[in-house]
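Changelog-adjacent note: as of this version, every example in the card shows the full chain rather than a window. The one below runs 169 residues end to end.
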Amino acid sequence: MKDQAKGVKVAGRHSQSVYDKKRGTIMGYLAPGEDLIKGLKKICQEHQVTAGTINCIGSLSHVSIIQLNYENDHMFYSNPTHWDTPVELLSGHGVLGQKEDGELDIHFHGVFVDHRKTINGGHFLEGTNTVAITIEFTIHVTDEIQPLRQFDESTGFTLFNFYSKNDEQ
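Full-length structure tokens:
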């Protein structure tokens, strides 16, 4: 069997991933107690990946999201909403790129169901979404495209723009 990748030991099981460089795919899981966004960033850093898309499923013991609001022809994000009971992450998707200072960034949205069977979702916040049992993920790596998070004056939001890695930003 090929080498099992790198990871961090958490609660008796440690996060693990394998990078198929030929196909540009990383697959793995995050362990209980690990933060969803921080854990995915750590995996990307271990494999020296700065661009791609992320898909995942699993369970979280704590969740914090924000959602888009609309009032008086104005769009803005809500204050964070928190769940302190376990949820099942039915579908999570993200874009992996960099901030203007070169720091790794993940723009992540997901849909989940809580123990009352209520479905909800939104924009997940870093540092506030703890893995309960596991998060299983696939990262599709891009070699020639670099998403770069930049402020967009027309929307008032910081958004990803997409560049060829050979272009100057």
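Structural remarks: The radius of gyration is 17 Å.
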